[in-house]
Amino acid sequence: MKTVAITSQKGGTGKTTTAVHLATAATLTGYHAVVIDLDPQGSAATWGDDRGEAAPEVISGQASRLNVLLESAAKEGFDLVVVDTGPAADAASRRSAELADLVLIPCRPSAFDLKAIRTTLDLVEATRTPAFVVLNAAPIRSRAVDEARDVVTGLAGKVAPVVICQRAAYGHSVIVGRTAQEFEPDGKAAEEVEALWDWVKTELKIPPKQAREAA
Predict the structure, then answer these.
(1) What is the pLDDT of residues 137-184, one digit of tens each?
(2) How far, in Å, CA of 183 to CA of 125, rounded?
(3) How many angstroms separate the CA atoms of 160 and 25, rounded?
(4) How far is CA 114 from CA 51, 106, 107, 161, 163, in A?
(5) What is the 3-state secondary structure (H, E, C) of 57-78?
(6) What is the C-alpha to C-alpha distance for residues 110 and 139, in angstroms, rounded to an integer?
(7) DSSP assignment, residue 110?
(8) C-alpha 97, offset from chain centre
(9) Right CATH number for 2-142+159-202 from 3.30.160.670, 1.20.1280.290, 3.40.720.10, 3.40.50.300?
């Protein structure tokens, strides 16, 4: 089982959207995924309620019990756990980073968001967990993305190779408990999510589902 923590000390960066899209992308390719919602606002849990019985499952929890929740997920045979943390939730963010195999830090390519990212980068550096900034809600075909990459690398951070652009499919889909891949399967947003999951899968060395089943 692999664990990905989605964290950022700033609100409004798209953590929950990233979390549910990543878990659903894994589900759509045959993996058993679950979202653990540590955000007191419970946005991922609300999305799960709207989704009904469809996978992935969403579990609400507290940072102090995260190790117990992860042990339970491993016993239940989950391939992937995606942990969604709240803004400025230092305890939850640090604990999830400590226990994760990979940390993703969603960040909009804007001045305010980039200035606020240093705190999160310092947090994950302290835990020594592999971490990447995911540029999120990015304008399409804009120099802002390249400028944002330069800022992050200047802070000694790493940037994921997949950029998530500002697209209506993300917002429209989560409102009804779905994701962009399900809402508009042939759209650009779906392509971005698929590419992000493929990259995460490679980064975590998760074998193809067929190989897992044959093993």
Answers:
(1) 999 988 999 999 999 999 999 999 999 999 999 999 999 999 999 999
(2) 36
(3) 17
(4) 33, 10, 7, 17, 15
(5) EEEECCHHHHHHHHHHHHHCCC
(6) 10
(7) S
(8) 12
(9) 3.40.50.300
What is the number of H-type helices and E-type strands within the chain? Answer: 10, 6
Sequence letter at residue 208: P
User: Where does 9-133 have alpha helices with state H?
Assistant: 15-28, 43-51, 66-75, 90-99, 111-127
Q: What distance in Å separates the CA atoms of residue 170 and residue 21, rounded to the nearest whole number?
A: 9
Q: What is the pTM (predicted TM-score) of this model?
A: 0.94
Phi/psi at 57 (5° precision):
-75, 150
Measured CA to CA, the distance from residue 183 to residue 178 in angstroms comes to 7
| Stretch (H or E) spanning 132 | strand 131-135
Query: Which residue in 171, 14, 22, 5 sits closest to 108, CA to CA?
Result: 14
Write out the two tokens for 74: 């491993």
